[in-house]
């Protein structure tokens, strides 16, 4: 067993990640033992060490408590690795993505069809093999991935293909509904229509420029992506971030959480046709973005983070007063939402997600916390200044759309209080330190984004440029979970249920 560093700051010693080489024949036994001991798989990805054509597959585990994160490294012994999806179902999408982009096959995969590649697509070589990618080809006959209906009532079942172009400014996605009357019998999403190959775009880029790509993976999560990326680079460089920069990073992260959750409330009200609630939520979102712009020059908090700290100091004058005005308007707004029976009637029992299903399928962030799972990376594996900013994780056990709304409502108040504490306790000092990772280094960074756990794993080549960057985004996890709450629901509640998850296609497809 070995270790790699992560999240190096002056607040504490760097968190260490335990690394273990696992033989492919022992992979399933290791997974069963880890799950029995209380671990939870977080992600899997493949990369090509030393620019070889022989991939290595890595698995990240979250133990919780005082135990460090754990990384397994595995080289396929033959033509395929054993699939871990039958043991840890959340790994199914990761394995399918690895097959599509890295060419690694998984034996006994319960869903062997492609995930990222659209029906009929094929490539001459793995897309993430180092070097220029081959163009994607398509076969004229596009095989169907849809289920076949049988039985005496099958003639009454209707299919509704919806998308990939949808109304308004919604991102591209294809949804297939099989329904009987208003009852949804089966739901199957097809994403990745505008897959941007963001992980491939990092290849050959310098670590300092990589942050520009990271904060553009998902616009509404720019701080979270940039911060996780920077912390991965800092882990590779064993870089110590100045204390003031660490506190300001937590400030930026909570400012991002604040405007995201305000938008969420407004959009959820839109789906329940609570028009005044929608207007007020989006007005509060606008106030939060104006506050961001005055403090940073960017409504979406861009171009601030760099490996080693921040590009520049923030303008904090008047920020506390602006925050208090938002709080003054938010508190009665939240109370009115909780008293609006027409709104609550549409949320209660909609999109129910049991704790076991949330755990098995990989729910993260407010989605898992609304099903009673007590996980938050800010507390479990503190980064930036969160070790000095203890807080109580917002939990609900309602397991439905209302519980998911309540978790975010509580987190808004938490973010306001955390921002207030940061502004009042902000230490003096510089906001940037030198950060130059050595060639061949690697690191992992993580963030509890507004939508859940976000991980970046970075590998540098011998020249010190990025060889591989893996992004584990929360929407990738929660899109995996979402269909399980749609089956056996009804058509009238679908838009409400989707809004209650706060999903983004860009964050998933990358």
How would you describe the overall organization of this protein?
- The protein is α+β, with helices and mostly antiparallel strands and 510 residues long.
- The chain has 2 domains: 2-131, 2-Layer Sandwich (Beta Polymerase, domain 2), CATH 3.30.460; 198-509, Cytochrome-c3 Hydrogenase, chain B.
- Helix content is 38%, strand content 18%.
- The protein contains 17 helices and 17 strands.
- The chain has helices at 27-36, 91-102, 198-201, 207-214, 222-237, 243-271, 275-296, 319-339, 341-347, 355-361, 366-369, 377-380, 401-425, 474-481, 483-486, 494-501, 505-509, and strands spanning 2-6, 15-21, 40-47, 56-62, 70-74, 80-82, 105-107, 121-122, 137-138, 158-162, 174-180, 183-190, 305-306, 309-310, 442-449, 452-460, 466-472.
- It has a 5-stranded mixed beta sheet. A 3-stranded antiparallel beta sheet has the order 10-11-12, with no helix packed on it. A 3-stranded antiparallel beta sheet has the order 15-16-17.
- α4 packs antiparallel against α5.
- It is globular, with a radius of gyration of 23 Å.
- The two termini are 32 Å apart.
- The relative contact order is 0.14.
- Residues 8-14 have low confidence and may be disordered.
């Amino acid at each position: 067993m070995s270790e790699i560093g992560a999240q190096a700051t002056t607040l504490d010693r760097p968190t260490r990640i335990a690394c273990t080489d696992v033989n492919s024949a022992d992979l399933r036994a290791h997974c069963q033992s880890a799950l029995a001991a209380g671990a939870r798989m977080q992600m899997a990805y493949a990369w090509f060490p030393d620019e070889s054509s022989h991939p290595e597959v890595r698995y990240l585990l979250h133990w919780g408590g005082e135990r460090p994160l754990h990384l397994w490294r595995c080289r396929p012994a033959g033509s395929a690795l054993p699939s871990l999806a039958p043991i840890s179902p959340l790994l199914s999408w990761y394995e399918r993505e690895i097959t599509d982009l890295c060419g690694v096959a998984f034996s006994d995969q319960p869903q062997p069809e492609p995930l990222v590649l659209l029906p009929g697509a094929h490539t001459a070589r793995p897309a993430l093999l180092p070097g220029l990618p081959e163009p994607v080809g398509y076969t004229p006959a596009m095989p169907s991935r849809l289920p076949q209906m049988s039985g005496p009532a099958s003639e009454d079942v209707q299919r509704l293909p919806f998308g990939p172009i949808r109304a308004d400014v919604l991102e591209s996605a294809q949804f297939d509904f099989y329904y009987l009357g208003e009852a949804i019998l089966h739901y199957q999403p097809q994403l990745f229509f505008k897959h941007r190959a963001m992980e491939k775009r990092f290849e050959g880029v310098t670590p300092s420029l990589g942050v520009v790509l990271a904060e553009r993976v998902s616009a509404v999560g720019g701080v979270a992506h940039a911060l996780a990326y920077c912390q991965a680079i800092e882990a590779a460089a064993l870089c110590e971030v100045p204390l003031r920069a660490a506190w300001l990073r937590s400030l930026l992260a909570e400012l991002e959480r604040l405007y995201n959750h305000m938008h969420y409330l407004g959009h959820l009200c839109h789906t329940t046709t609570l028009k005044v609630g929608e207007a007020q939520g989006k007005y509060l979102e606008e106030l939060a973005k104006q506050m961001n712009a005055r403090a940073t020059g960017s409504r979406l908090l861009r171009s601030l983070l760099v490996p080693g700290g921040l590009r520049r100091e923030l303008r904090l004058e008047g920020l506390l007063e602006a925050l208090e005005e938002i709080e003054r308007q938010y508190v009665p707004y939240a109370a009115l939402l909780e008293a609006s029976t027409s709104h609550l009637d549409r949320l209660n029992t909609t999109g129910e997600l049991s704790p076991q299903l949330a755990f098995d399928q990989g729910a993260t962030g407010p989605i898992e916390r609304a099903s009673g799972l007590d996980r938050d990376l800010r507390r479990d594996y503190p980064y930036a200044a969160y070790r000095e900013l203890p807080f109580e994780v917002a939990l609900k056990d309602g397991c439905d759309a209302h519980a998911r709304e309540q978790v975010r409502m509580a987190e808004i108040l938490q973010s306001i209080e955390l921002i207030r504490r940061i502004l009042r306790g902000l230490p003096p000092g510089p906001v940037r330190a030198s950060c130059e990772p050595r060639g061949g280094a690697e690191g992992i960074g993580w963030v509890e984004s507004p939508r859940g756990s976000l991980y970046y794993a970075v590998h540098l080549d011998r020249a010190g440029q990025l060889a591989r960057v893996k992004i584990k985004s929360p929407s990738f996890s929660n899109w995996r979970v979402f269909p399980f709450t749609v089956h056996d629901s009804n058509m009238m509640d679908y838009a409400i249920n989707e809004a209650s998850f706060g999903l983004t296609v860009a964050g998933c497809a990358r």
